Amino acid sequence: MNNMNKWQSWVTIGTTPILALGAIAALSAPSTASNVQVTCKTNASTPMVIVTLVKDGTAKDYPILKFIPEYFSDADVVQNCQNAAKNLQVAYNTGDFKYLTTDKVNDRPVVCAIERRGIGCNHYSAQVLFSFKPTSNPSQALYEMLGSDFKQAQPPDVRTISRTYTDTKPFWWPF
Questions:
Q1: Per-residue pLDDT tens digits for 77-112
Q2: Which of 93, 92, 90, 71 is nearest to 80 (CA)?
């Protein structure tokens, strides 16, 4: 019995460093979140949310949302841009939000980030990015605001009321 206990303690001592190394390797694995930076650029007439991708040490900017003045009051446009950038940075860091869509929340048209198709901005997991002035077609407004790399090939059909979903990561992204 005594030999068995000694053998078990050696096994325990022998596996502890292996487990610790595995945990260290998992913690030090590179994260893709650091490769995406989201900012609001307000130095032009139209504030824009810019996504900066860093790949192999090279940074490239992609406009994701242009805050077109007709959809916002002058007082709200910069704040909306900054809030959208901050919330999209969280979305890219967590990887939880894969789509942008429009909806009405408290009778206001909003754009939100969601985790999957089929849910709206009033879902408990949705992250509202901003609201804009009342408009007859929020999907059309979002389409016009999207940067060219994020737009679908066709604008949403104005005759349908179905919700459209825009990928937050275009298919050609490196990660």
A1: 999 999 999 999 988 888 888 899 999 888 889 999
A2: 71
Which candidate, 97, 93, 141, 137, places its Cα nearest to that of 119?
97
pTM, two decimals, is 0.73
54's CB contacts (< 8 A; 6+ apart) are 34, 35, 36, 37
Q: How many CB atoms lie within 10 A of CB 81?
A: 25
69 neighbors 141 (Cβ within 8 angstroms)? no
Q: Is 173 exposed, middle or buried (0-12, 13-18, 19+ CB in 10 A)?
A: middle
- State which amino acid sits at residue 46: T
pLDDT tens column, 3-21: 555 545 444 454 444 444 4
- b/e for 23-56, b at 16 or more Cβ within 10 A? eeeeeeeeeeeebbbbbbeeeeeebbbbbebeee
Two tokens, residue 142: 């979002």
